């Protein structure tokens, strides 16, 4: 299995509850390495652009407001089959359906306030990483 990269966001519900370290520990324990990380407050433009694929969904406005409501931590994660590994440790989007031991099972509050985002494919990982990071900010 090849070493690849994925993109992660520790969302406002988690940063607000001081869970940045706890979430990151889960990622590291799963075998992922944080090769870039920064705490930012998303602008409306950034949040709308990042979630543009969801702009026709009824929850789009709520999603954008939520992502701007508190700081987030954007990260690049590296590891073997990183996209799949990250999705496994995150758990299902809806915490009510998330498996035991996953980040969302332990920390998420609801389907909207679900503590983390992770890329759903290597193609999207590359796009999402480039949305927030320049190459010199990523140190593997
Ligand atoms: P994420 O992986 O960041 O990608 C899109 C996000 O939309 C998703 O996680 C959820 O936080 C959010 N989302 C999905 N479905 C709903 C919903 N029904 N209501 C509110 N937010 C949602």
Helix content: 40-55%
Number of DSSP-assigned strands: 4
Q: What is the straight-line distance between the termini?
A: 18 Å
Bound molecules: adenosine-3',5'-cyclic-monophosphate
Largest sheet: 4 strands, antiparallel
**What is the number of helices?**
7
Assembly category: single chain
Rg (CA only):
14 Å
What percentage of the residues does DSSP assign to strands (E)?
15-25%
Uncertain segments: none
SSE run: EHHEHHEHHEH
Rough shape? Answer: globular
Q: Could you tell me the mean pLDDT? A: 98
Strand order of the largest sheet: 2-3-1-4
Textual characterization of the structure:
With 140 residues, the protein is α+β, with helices and mostly antiparallel strands. Helices cover 40% and strands 20% of the residues. The chain contains 7 helices and 4 strands; from the N terminus they run βααβααβααβα. The protein has a 4-stranded antiparallel sheet with strand order 2-3-1-4, with helices on both faces. The relative contact order is 0.26. The model has no long low-confidence stretch (mean pLDDT 98). The chain binds adenosine-3',5'-cyclic-monophosphate. The site of adenosine-3',5'-cyclic-monophosphate (CMP) has 9 residues, from α4.
In short:
By secondary structure, the protein is α+β, with helices and mostly antiparallel strands. Helix content is 40%, strand content 20%. Bound molecules: adenosine-3',5'-cyclic-monophosphate.
């Amino acid at each position: 299995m090849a070493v690849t990269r994925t993109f992660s966001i520790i969302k406002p519900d988690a940063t607000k509850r001081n869970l940045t370290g706890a979430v990151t520990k889960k990622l590291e324990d799963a075998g992922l390495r944080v090769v870039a990380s920064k705490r930012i407050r998303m602008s409306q433009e950034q949040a709308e652009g990042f979630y543009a694929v969801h702009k026709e969904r009824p929850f789009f406005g709520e999603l954008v407001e939520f992502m701007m409501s508190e700081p987030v931590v954007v990260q690049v994660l590296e590891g073997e089959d990183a996209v799949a590994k990250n999705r496994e440790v995150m758990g299902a989007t809806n915490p009510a359906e998330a498996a035991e031991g996953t980040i969302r099972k332990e920390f998420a509050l609801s389907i909207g306030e679900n503590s983390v985002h992770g890329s759903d494919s290597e193609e999207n990982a590359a796009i999402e990483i480039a949305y927030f990071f320049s190459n010199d900010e990523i140190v593997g």
